[in-house]
Amino acid sequence: MKKIWTFAISAVLVTLIISLSAGCKQESTNQFFGQWALYLPGGAGWLDLHIETDMDGNEYPVADLLWYGGSVVKRDEKPVIMDDMCIVWRTRDADRQKDKDGNVTVRQKLIDRIELKLNGNDEIIGRMYESSRNGFGVNIVEFTGKRNPAPGKAPKLSALKFGEPVTLFNGKDLSGWKLMEEEKTSGWKVVDGTLVNDPVQKEGEPHIRYGNLRTEAEFEDFNLKLEVNVPAHSNSGIYLRGIYEVQVVDSYGKDLDSHNMGGLYSRITPSVAAEKPAGEWQTFDITLCDRHLTVLLNGTKVIDNAPVYGCTGGAMTPNEFVPGPIYLQGDHGKVSYRNIVLTPIVK
Question: What is the pTM assigned to this prediction?
Fold first, then answer.
């Protein structure tokens, strides 16, 4: 009987040790879970590693990724999480052949590998092995990341205190503004008191790379009011502190989407379609405070004090805790702005 009890106690101890070991391992791998601001060479990114549950109740890791520009994308490829490393995969399409009607007949998948290693509890060191489009070799991108704390409690907007309004555009010239990328062409000019961007491409001639326009001054939290006129099929964007893009686009008559007029690009979908038809002047009333965003489009509230969880594509930096400029996207299509007034929030 003594031997049986000894065996039973030993079995319990072994089970306990295994459980504790598994718990420690899980705790270690859990350090990768969370949201990360990615400091990419010459740009910004964002990564959210979290757990979801399938239809059978099984948990599995998921990676949402923003890499430089474009949208935040939920990766279909399952990340691999180990004690000291996390691997995230990214696939891209490469069209190889088309028929006479322009339909793709041969398409390949380019597979990129992102390796992440912990550097303390709140920092990661990353390396992207980006497949070359021709399939020969890789481009290696080294970067760092910092854990992004979630936005805190929503501010009470009625209690905010404001400073003196600042007129950002004087209606006469580009004083107080500059091109973000000196090597690019400026399509910006002042016409009849209106700030106009007209990035013309001439048929048969080399593609011209047009630049974005930013304020020389930088700001923290604020209210921003302006008017904008978007021609048919055109596209622009208003970047708050150079980090968050409020979308400017001809989306009249389309279903609600985070890429529509008044949305926070690929992050927050307008609650109602309030845009006007193309070619009409439209008004924005935007408040950014404590990483919460409120947007009134043409007098209708389309985003209501919503938390913002990270930068958007095209951000100047992933750091959401530093002042930054207002910048207007100028590399997409024709657009006009006027009556641009920023009122800082006093804290």
Answer: 0.88
